[in-house]
Specification:
This protein is α+β, with helices and mostly antiparallel strands. The chain contains ten helices and seven strands. It has a five-stranded mixed β-sheet. A two-stranded antiparallel sheet has the order 1-2. The longest helix is centred in the first third of the chain and has 13 residues. The N and C termini lie far apart (54 Å).
Amino acid sequence: MPTSRSYRDSCGVARALDVVGERWALLVVRELLLTPQRFSELRHALPGVSSNLLADRLRELEQHGVVHRPDGGRYDLTDWGRRLEPVVLALGDWGIDAPHPAGPAALSATSVLIFLRGHARPDPQAPPTTCRLDLDGRAWTVRLTAGRLEIDPGEPPTADAALRTDPATLSALLQDPSTLAAACTDGTAAIVGDRTAIDRLLRAVSEPTPA
């Protein structure tokens, strides 16, 4: 059931934790940074949380004005909730140096895409490129132009190339783009269109932008 626990501390940090300090709350916020999601989609992205606990966290976040359901179905961040984005991104950057969890661990599509968006440094001299990413049954549009990378939900009208894979494989490819051929061979990744466009996308993270 929803919790009403409080630190009873007037510091802004404590008051913020009163709102989003419960377990799974900030991960729900993370999942909503790129696109609104239904309960079932959030449950799929966060396999470690039970349905009841996820429902409680969403109810609490709604009551606090962090999330809402403007269309009655999908959860989305409110304007106030969206102000958590730089906090979540900074926390993610800080957490890169923390130990990995022991054993199998979940990795959502949103997590990998946030990393890609934040760490990509495309060559500003390269021609504009549009890629379609298919992750966990959802399409995303990734554009590289003028040294910037943008990610939007949904499929692009046209694309130079499309990559279908899973979040864990995409994460591995961003760490080592040279494994792309092996991933295509073993079926964990599939490319349609210009393969060099996908290679350029992956290497935007692993290689520095030319001076």
